[in-house]
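Write out the 3D structure for:
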Amino acid sequence: MAEQSQRSSPLLFFNRTRSKKYDEIDFAEVYQVHRLQVYRYSLSRVGHIDDAQDITAQVFLKAYRNLPNYRQDVPIIAWLMGITRNQIADYHRRHREDISLSVLPDIPSHNKSLEESIEHKHQIKRVTQALNALSDDRRDVLAMRLFAGLKNQEIAEIMGKSPDAVAMLVHRGIQDLKKRLSEEQ
C-alpha cells in the first residue's frame, strides 16, 4: 500500500528511480513529468519552436534507447538534461545562428500602439543579443533555471558543478545581462 501512495506522485516516484533497475522505470511517466522542462530549455537555447520540438523528441528517443546505460546514482532529470545539452550542441554546430526570442508570444493589449509594438520588438532583440553575448556556462545555467525551471542542485548535477558554483553562475549571469542591457541605453 505504501508503494501505491508513493507512485501516485510522479515526482516522488522519479526521485526514487535511482534505486530501481532501468527496466522498472515507467518511461511514459518519465516523458509526462519531464517533457516540458526539456522543451522549454531547448526552446530557450535554439529559439525556434519546430527545432525545439525536434530536439525534445530526439532527447526522449535517445533516452529510451539508452535506458540500459542510465546510471542510477543521478536523478533522471539530470540525465535527460545532459542528453538535451548534447543535442543542442549538435544543433548549434549544424546551424550556427543567433537565438531569437521573437518566438515568445506578445502580451496581448488592446491599447498597444504601433510605437509600443515596435519598442517591444526592439527590447526582445536587445535581450536576445545580450543573452547570446553571455558565456556558454552562464547562458546554459540561466536557460535551465529560468526556462526549464530547474533548481540549482539539479543544474549542478547536470553540469558537474557544485550548487554554490551554479548559484554564482546564475547571479553573475543575471548581473552580466543587466549590465549589457544598461550599457545599450
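Confidence is low (pLDDT under 50) at residues 1-23, 103-108.
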